[in-house]
């Protein structure tokens, strides 16, 4: 991206980073050996949030430290820039401590013409991001090369006092945005917890007319299966083919139906779950994840399904299987190997409580559905606020480095 002097106010300059930095280098290219204590060692994982995470650090011994310090010795007010991973995110060294860095981090030490705090805001601005993104190299995990970083252009006021004024405005504004964002995030968390709390209370405070049965006595249980993948004719758009990643994708039990499907031939080699069935992931990190299908589907062998009898309200049992108490049953009966797994025979022997009255079951579902709908509305509002605040930060930074930030 080529910046033009004509775009900026009088008294501003445009220079390449190599012209305003005393040093632009990176950390050690050697794979370190870590120890329980010693000298602090940072990588790009420590600056992904735009600040240095000093809580999750690793340590190297004295021998490695002395070798690495010959290459680069970070110090207070240096800028650390992630070269890969969350590329282009930077943090300022805010502690006067001795540490070393990995090759995934670039170090920028600015000259007296630019304030380190001004440089930090620039590195994290949309203007810098665009330039970094254009200069990414490599396939798979793109990264920034030092030569590319050195060629990035920074616009800045020649006056240090003007730079300081802009930094002060950004500090104050971003502190207010951070507070507003924290409030929105807390409100989002509260909205989710409100529904979760009510759901748990429904099944914790059972009435006298409730009874308990195992899943196999409530309906038909099945484990999915995958037709031969090397037979292309098994796959098509006749019926959705559900996998664990398709279940509860938005955290509300909804299913993604358009990821993959089976052909009519494929279904003959698979298993069909009727509309209104409940799907649960029964293996791996997402074990216990529950979904409710609104159409006929098939699924793979990592999923068990329950199709309840007509005498019951199927959605009620979706909510029952979504409770913490049922998840605890799953985990207590799961085999704890490399990945937790519960087979169909153990799963269908798990029990749930429910009111005998179908009318009461439907009434509970109606209340839970209504609360779920309202919760989703609140979540949408707060999530949009968070998104808007992030966009506001980008807009303010854009103005700052266009020379338009005056108040």
Give the strand order of the largest sheet, numbering strands 1, 2, ... along the chain. Answer: 2-8-5-6
Round the Cα radius of gyration to an integer and report it.
Answer: 28 Å
CATH class membership of the largest domain:
Alpha Beta
* Class per helix and strand makeup: alpha+beta
The termini sit apart by: 27 Å
Biggest sheet layout = 4 strands, antiparallel
- Strand count: 21
The helix count comes to 11
The percent range for helix content is 25-40%
Low-confidence stretches: none
Overall pLDDT confidence: 92
| CATH H-level homologous superfamily name of the largest domain | DNA methylase specificity domains
Shape: elongated
Q: What name does the CATH topology of the largest domain carry?
A: Adenine-n6-DNA-methyltransferase TaqI, Chain A, domain 2
Please state the second-level CATH architecture of the largest domain: Alpha-Beta Complex
Describe the structure.
The chain is an alpha+beta fold and 407 residues long. The protein folds into three domains: 5-157, Adenine-n6-DNA-methyltransferase TaqI, Chain A, domain 2 (Alpha-Beta Complex), CATH 3.90.220.20; 159-207 and 357-407, Helix Hairpins (Orthogonal Bundle); 210-356, Adenine-n6-DNA-methyltransferase TaqI, Chain A, domain 2 (Alpha-Beta Complex). Helices cover 37% and strands 21% of the residues. The chain has eleven helices and 21 strands. The strands form seven sheets. The protein has a four-stranded antiparallel sheet with strand order 2-8-5-6. Helix 6 (160-204) packs antiparallel against helix 11. The chain is elongated, with a radius of gyration of 28 Å. The model has no long low-confidence stretch (mean pLDDT 92).
């Amino acid at each position: 991206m080529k910046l033009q002097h004509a775009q900026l106010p009088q008294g501003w300059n445009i220079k390449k980073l190599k012209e305003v930095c005393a040093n632009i280098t990176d950390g050690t290219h050697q794979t370190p050996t870590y120890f329980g204590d010693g000298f602090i060692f940072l990588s790009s994982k420590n600056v992904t949030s735009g600040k240095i995470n000093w809580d999750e650090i690793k340590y190297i011994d004295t021998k490695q430290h002395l070798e690495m310090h010959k290459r680069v010795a970070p110090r207070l007010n240096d800028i650390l820039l992630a070269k890969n991973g969350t590329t282009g995110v930077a943090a300022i060294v805010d502690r006067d401590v001795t540490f070393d860095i990995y090759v995934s981090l670039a170090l920028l030490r600015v000259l007296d013409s630019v304030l380190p705090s001004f440089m930090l805001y620039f590195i994290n601005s949309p203007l810098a991001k665009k330039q970094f993104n254009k200069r990414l190299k490599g396939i798979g995990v793109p990264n920034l090369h030092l030569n590319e970083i050195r060629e990035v252009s920074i616009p800045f006021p020649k006056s240090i006092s003007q730079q300081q004024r802009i930094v002060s405005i950004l500090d104050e504004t971003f502190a207010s945005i951070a507070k507003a964002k924290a409030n929105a995030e807390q409100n989002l968390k509260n909205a989710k917890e409100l529904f979760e709390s009510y759901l748990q209370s429904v099944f914790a405070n059972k009435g006298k007319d409730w009874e308990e049965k195992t899943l196999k006595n409530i309906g038909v249980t099945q484990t999915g299966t995958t037709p031969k993948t090397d037979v292309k004719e098994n796959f098509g758009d006749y019926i959705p083919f559900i996998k664990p990643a398709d279940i509860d994708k938005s955290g509300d039990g909804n299913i993604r139906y358009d990821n993959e499907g089976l052909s009519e031939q494929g279904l003959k080699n698979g298993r069909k779950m009727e509309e209104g069935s409940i799907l649960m992931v029964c293996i791996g990190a997402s074990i216990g994840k529950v979904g409710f299908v609104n159409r006929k589907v098939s699924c793979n062998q990592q999923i068990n399904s329950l199709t309840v009898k007509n005498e019951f309200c199927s959605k009620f049992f979706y909510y029952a299987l979504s409770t913490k108490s049922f998840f605890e049953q799953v985990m207590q009966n799961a085999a704890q190997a490399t990945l937790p797994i519960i087979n169909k025979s153990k799963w269908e022997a798990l029990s749930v409580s429910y009111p005998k009255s179908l009318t009461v079951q439907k009434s509970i579902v109606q209340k839970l559905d209504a609360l779920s709908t309202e919760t989703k509305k609140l979540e949408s509002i707060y999530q949009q606020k968070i998104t808007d605040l992030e966009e506001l930060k980008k807009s303010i930074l854009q103005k700052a480095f266009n020379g338009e930030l005056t108040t």
